[in-house]
Amino acid sequence: MTPIITTTHLGRRYGDTWALRDLNLSIDEGSIFGLLGANGAGKTTTLRILTTSLAPSAGRACVGGSDVATHPRRVRRVLGYMPDSFGVYDDLTVLEYLDFYATAHGVGRGGRRQLLDDLLSIVGLTDRRSSFVDVLSRGMKQRLGIARCLVHDPPILLLDEPASGLDPLARMEMQTLLRELSQMGKTVVISSHILPELGDICTHAAIVHGGCLLLQGSVAELLAEPSLSGPLQIRLVDELSARLAVETLRRQPAVTGITVNGAALDVQAAGGPEVDADLFVLLGRAGCRVLRYGRRPVSLEDVYFAAVRSSMEAA
Amino acid sequence: MTLVGVVSKDLLGRMRTWRPALVIGLHLGILAAIALGQIYATQVSASGAYGGAQGPAQGPELFNTLASFELLLIAFLTPALTAAAISGERERRTFELLLLTRLSGIGIVAGKLVSTVGFLVVVIFGSLPVFSLVFLFGGVAPQTLLRIYLLYATAATALATGGICASALSKRTQTSIALSYAFAFLLVFGTTIAATVLNAPTRPLTGGPPEVPTLAWIASAANPLDALLSVLPNPGGPGVAPYVAMLPIPGFLTGVEQPPLAGIWHAPLWRLNVEIEGVLALVFVLLAACAVRPPRLR
Fold first, then answer.
1. Which of A107, A122, A275, B193 has the fewest CB atoms within 10 Å of its CB?
2. pTM value?
3. The sheet that has A255-261: what strands, in order across it?
4. ipTM of the complex
5. Contacts with B93 from chain A: Cβ below 8 Å
């Protein structure tokens, strides 16, 4: 796949502080790209540079083949941006709100009505077309924000924390919507610090910490990192068995940590499947009655924490 | 086309609430109260011992009062309508999204200006029923009416652009409101005070025609109230306009003392006012457009 967004040694300084340093990103066309990082990691700064709202202090960024610094107008035409927190015109209806942005983006009168109907259908707000924007729930406002991003049919969408503040159902709806947009051929860049949800929908991800890029690649590659493994999750029949299991496992050199939650244990154990099998045999010999035993799959959260830990150790 | 979007969005938002009805109602109410008050006062004084202006002068006098108050109402109302034009977008966090559209800085400012002036036109023309009372009494030429409406339009545009410019330069609406009203005060009263101060030293103590310094004339020409007073009918004859005489303004503002100035300044005060405020509006639009234009990164 060809990269549609690239940044080369991108940096941004606020006074004496570098919010972003030497960022080299490559985002493939058609991917759902997750930009992961804690608050203050530089995610929003990166997105704002890509949207041409902020000038880079160092390096360069290209969006859709155009440099954000030299061709900001061209860049604005090929992307739709939804900021972390954005305002709406409360005194307009949903349809009027979208119609205004369509006009502002230069969408012609012919076919505009059909376009807006289609957009409302995509984001599931058709039955809310005549509602005033201020009566919409947060989830609906977020979906309306995505519809606004789509009014000029841009190939790239930059979404800053799109699921922040949403309830579980609204988050699920948002994930479905983002997948649909990807299937429509859009490149979706999502910045978020809610890692589990990104793991479910992103095809590619990058981890930023303290303004620096730590890792980048396809989610499958990141999760397949050999040095990473999820904790060993053991469910025992009762708490007595759990105590016995803890005593047995603590004596094993491969075990580096145990978290007890009633009759459930999360065991940090270095090593591969052979170590897991050995520990299972030991528990059986010690008389522990095991109900469930297995490794939790590696999540993006594990990847993130491992990357941040190793970065801090290196520093 | 993008400009139309801003205008229609602003007008839709503005007209949906109860505020426009309140503004128009209050505006009409104040003017009607003034008109009826003056008619009543004239009737009472005409029937009293001192005699009154009932007769041919009553129409022009009523017209002059209404026209002056209308201008003051416009000066009071316009800053309130424009002060939040851009800063409100910033506070609502819609400004960044606006800049990412195809709208240019000048497009945003022009859209805001057209929607505000459009609303003001509705308010000003809404006062026509009150002004029509004047025609019951007669004595006012249609040309005068056209001129004062032209002056209203110019003053409203200048004040609106000033308000939008203040809004574009301010991060907070409170600051913008303060700046807009300061500009309105400066335009309506400050220039008159300046004209008076600049005119005073050269006023001859005894006899002879007054010598009007150019700066005093320019300051007066920039003032919408002075320009308005210069076109209003003079019911009591040349140089007699009681409500003008009460104000601390130069004598030439009664419209009878044309200063001996050459070049472009040798023109009626109202025309100079339209030109000066037009230029002022243009400067404010450009300033505001520079302040709101999408970021040029390099």
1. B193
2. 0.81
3. A255-261, A264-269, A232-236, A290-295
4. 0.80
5. 83, 85-87
